[in-house]
Design brief:
Bound molecules: zinc ion
Radius of gyration: 14 Å
Oligomer: single chain
Distance between the termini: 26 Å
Shape: flat
Structural class: alpha+beta
Number of domains: 1
Number of helices: 2
Length: 70
């Protein structure tokens, strides 16, 4: 049998479920979802919360578009 089951994880930060490879929290608190990983990265370079959400929204839109393009 092929082991191609999607691994569903729950992000401890935002509580959303995700199937993509997890990001590592900078404070070492364990795997978090890619969105929170992006938020942390942006925060570390001084991007404020409102701007972080805008950037994450843009990333999601790109992912949806590339997913539909198959
Ligand atoms: Zn999260």
């Amino acid at each position: 049998m092929k082991d191609n089951i999607f691994r569903i994880s729950v992000c401890p930060r935002c509580g959303q479920t995700y199937t993509s490879p997890p990001a590592t929290a900078r404070d070492g608190s364990g795997p978090i979802c890619p969105d929170c990983g992006t938020r942390e990265a942006l925060e570390s370079i001084g991007v404020d919360a409102a701007e972080q959400e805008k950037i994450i929204d843009t990333i999601h839109r790109c992912q949806r578009e590339s997913g539909l393009g198959r």
